Amino acid sequence: MKKPQLSLPLEPDHMRRADLPQSDRELVANAIRCLEQKYLVKQDCLTNPEATRNFLKLRLYGLHYEVFACLYLDNRHRVIRYEELFRGTIDGASVHPREVLRKVVETGAAAVIFAHNHPSGVPEPSQADLRLTQRLREGLSLFDVRVIDHMIVGDGEAVSMAERGVL
C-alpha cells in the first residue's frame, strides 16, 4: 500500500497566518502535525466528521485569501492526500471543474471531500458554492467517485454541506 502524500502548501504556514502571535502559530503547526500523523500517516478512516472538520479548520482558518482544497480518499475513506488546488483573493477563488476532475482521476481516489475557506469569517455556503459542488459531484459520478462532503471554514467553525443535507 502506498504511503500517503501531502502536497506542500502554497506558502509556509507561518506566512499564511502572519497576524497570529508566534506562540499561536507554533500551536497551530503542532496541531496540524498531530492530525496529519493520526489521519494521514496511519491512514485511518475519516469516519468522524468532527475530526475531518478539525483538520480542515486548522489548514484553512485564518487565511486572508480563499483556498479550495481536496482530501482524496480511497474506497475505505482513508486519506490518500490533502491538496490545495486553487488560491484566490479575499472574496473568492476561481475553481476550474476540469482541473479538479483531472486531479481526482490522477490520484485514483474513490471518494473526495472538498473544502474551502471564507475569509469573511461567515461559513455559510453561497449559491455559487452550491452550484460548484453540484457540478463537481455530477462530473465525478461519471468516474464512480463519490463526493462525501464539501466543508466551508469560517471564523472558528466549519459548515458541512453533507450534514446540511445538500449533498
TrEMBL record:
Keywords: Hydrolase, Metal-binding, Metalloprotease, Protease, Zinc. InterPro entries: MPN (IPR037518), RadC_JAB (IPR025657), UPF0758 (IPR001405), UPF0758_CS (IPR020891). The keyword Zinc applies. PANTHER family: DNA REPAIR PROTEIN RADC, UPF0758 PROTEIN YEES-RELATED. The keyword Cell membrane does not apply. It comes from Thiocapsa marina 5811. One of its GO terms (molecular function) is metallopeptidase activity. One of its GO terms (biological process) is proteolysis. It comes from the Bacteria. Pfam families: RadC. This is DNA repair protein RadC. Residues 45-167 form the MPN domain.
